[in-house]
Design goal:
Chain A: This is F-box domain-containing protein. The complex is a heterodimer of chains A (350) and B (201). With 350 residues, chain A is an alpha/beta fold. Chain A contains ten helices and 16 strands. Chain A has one domain. A four-stranded mixed sheet of chain B has the order 1-3-2-4. In chain B, helix 6 packs antiparallel against helix 7. The chains are: A alpha/beta (350), B alpha+beta (201). Chains A and B meet through helix 1, helix 2 and helix 3 of A and helix 6, helix 7 and helix 8 of B.
Chain lengths: 350, 201
């Protein structure tokens, strides 16, 4: 005998929905727009993995505890689909739904949905819109490893929309050398981790960073635009730039000098700048910077008479560190060398 | 303690308890009377406040009429009081706002709720009305468990969820029921359109 859910008191419905697993709440949201108004308070985390031949959305409950990831695979390959799923405009999309169970978990239910689509980009936007409209969604990460430039560009532009609340974008591999990507950082606020670990690349050689508002920016294994100035990063929180081993990259001392002067005269939120490079010529770097004190291998910078930041060269990297950050951080964490940074980044991306 | 042994007693069936604790008398909307211990009542915020406000002595409890609970029938109230007696003295969970809510259904509760969905529905209403937090949690958990491994179409059947089209039709019907003249005007308009009239007015 069924139970008439909507006749149950609202408080109890809320409790029922809170006790459901993310895969069940997703299925519930599929039943009608009235159901979606109810699921709107449910906090869901969403991630998108963009690969060359397939797209993979993962959704879990926003929780500190690890939960099993549910998946939506978008595919344009011909296949027999027995069910349908609705993402946008009430259009039914053919799909297959596979419920799975992991006995190692206390309640190990999760779901794989294989949805058929002809226009992948439209479908991605529909899925994002569906989650934003149906749940309190937090997009935890976007993993871009597709070689399709158009895909990457469109999806990055899409991340700037309000309501998506992107937390982190992982950029894997090459192809950001296209002039398309010159303005991709304009207004971008999500943490950005770009890496190319296998070979030399011109990644981001055309990109401008003046309007980037990124809290954490990692550019590993790429080559910066030669005309880029370090002052472009002044609106970011922390920046890590690491060239590939084969590269002979070095930021000119004049640019380091200009960056230090700009930072001291501005209210920049930048607290850490790490650049893998050959050792700088310190005389040039601190030229005309007032009140610099050398303490061992560290140069102390002063702002209005107060010690404000340190610059130093360590583990093949140039470091600019705000004094407050250095005081409050573990030294070994703060001064990760380039190899360690790459390793820890690779760890994060897994 | 099994469901059968729970100390909720219908007045006409069982002997008066020998313990010196105070037992309150409640009456369901179908005139069934129950004796419930003071400690068990504490599980229900609503009843607890009610008996506190009444300030009954043990003599009052015996001499005055049973406290009427008008919204709940005897069958449901029996389940509620059985639950309260079994869990008496247990701490009442405080909602800390954490999500997800991890709720385990204890064996006793599972047996108690081995009932048809109609009665489960009434039990949830009663738990909500009487503000019995933990009973509401476990009964809701049972309803939430019904969604396990269900597709949207199956969920519609399990929870009797209307589709958008059905919702729309119900809304229209409700509007028409509220204003029959609107329906008449609409029909008249359609009729004139069919007859090729240029203007309704």
């Amino acid at each position: 005998m069924p139970i008439r859910l909507y006749r149950i008191p609202f408080l109890a419905i809320k409790i029922i929905l809170n006790q459901m697993e993310p895969c069940e709440i997703f299925m519930f949201s599929q039943t009608s727009s009235k159901a979606r108004r109810l699921t709107k308070f449910y906090k869901m985390s969403l991630a998108l993995i963009l690969k060359g031949d397939s797209d993979h959305f993962m959704f879990t409950r926003t929780s500190k505890k690890p939960t099993l990831a549910n998946s939506i695979y978008l595919s344009d390959s011909p296949r027999q689909y027995s069910k349908s799923v609705v993402f946008d405009q009430n259009k039914k999309v053919p799909c297959d739904i596979e419920f799975k169970n992991n006995p190692d978990w206390r309640r190990g239910d999760f779901v794989d949905i294989h949805a058929n689509c002809l226009n992948r980009m439209d479908m991605r936007k529909s899925v994002f819109k569906y989650f934003v409209d149906s749940f309190t969604v937090r997009v935890t990460s976007l993993f871009l490893s597709s070689n399709n430039i158009g895909d990457r560009y469109q999806i990055l532009e899409y991340t700037k929309r309000s309501g998506l609340n992107f937390q982190k974008i992982n950029w894997c591999g090459t192809c950001a050398d296209d002039p398309f990507f010159a303005d991709v950082f304009d207004g971008l606020t999500a943490n950005f981790f770009a890496f190319r670990l296998t070979r030399k690349t011109d990644m981001f050689c055309h990109t401008r960073f003046q309007n980037a508002r990124v809290n954490k920016l990692f550019l590993i294994g790429g080559q910066l635009n030669p005309t880029a100035n370090l002052t472009d990063f002044l609106n970011c929180g922390s920046v890590h730039i690491s060239y590939h081993y084969e590269s002979v990259g070095k930021i000119p001392d004049e640019k380091l000098n200009a960056f230090i002067k700009s930072w001291l005269t501005s209210n920049s939120p930048l607290t850490l700048l790490q650049i893998e490079m050959r050792a700088p010529n310190w005389k040039q770097v601190i030229k005309q910077v007032e009140g610099v004190q050398k303490d061992g291998r560290v140069y102390k910078l002063f702002k209005d008479g107060v010690e404000a930041a340190h610059i130093l060269y360590r583990d093949k990297c140039f470091f600019f560190v705000e004094k407050k950050l250095r005081d409050s951080s573990d030294e070994s964490d703060l001064f990760l060398g380039c190899v360690q940074t790459k390793c820890s980044l690779a760890e994060q991306l897994r | 303690m099994s469901v059968e042994n729970a100390p909720v007693v219908d007045v006409d069936e069982a002997a008066i308890p020998v313990e010196k604790k105070m037992y309150y008398r409640f009456e369901s909307n179908d005139k069934k009377e129950f004796r419930v211990s003071e400690l068990a009542i504490q599980q229900s915020e609503t009843l607890n406040r009610l008996v506190e406000a009444m300030g009954y002595t043990s003599e009052d409890v015996e001499n005055k009429p049973a406290i009427a609970i008008e919204n709940i029938d005897g069958k449901t109230l029996k389940l509620v009081f059985q639950w309260c007696e079994h869990h008496k003295g247990e701490a009442i969970p405080v909602d800390d706002g954490s999500v997800p809510k991890i709720v385990e259904i204890p064996e006793f509760d599972a047996k108690l709720m081995d009932i048809d969905n109609g009665l489960l529905f009434k039990l949830i209403w009663a738990a909500d009305y009487l503000n019995i937090v933990q009973l509401l949690n476990v009964s809701c958990k049972k309803v939430a468990n019904m969604a396990q491994g269900k597709t949207p179409a199956q969920l519609r059947r399990v929870y009797l969820l209307p589709s958008d089209e059905e919702d729309e039709a119900a809304k229209r019907a409700a509007q028409e029921a509220q204003d029959p003249r609107a329906r008449e005007v609409e029909e008249e308009f359609e009729e004139r359109k069919r007859q090729g009239g240029n203007s309704f007015f």
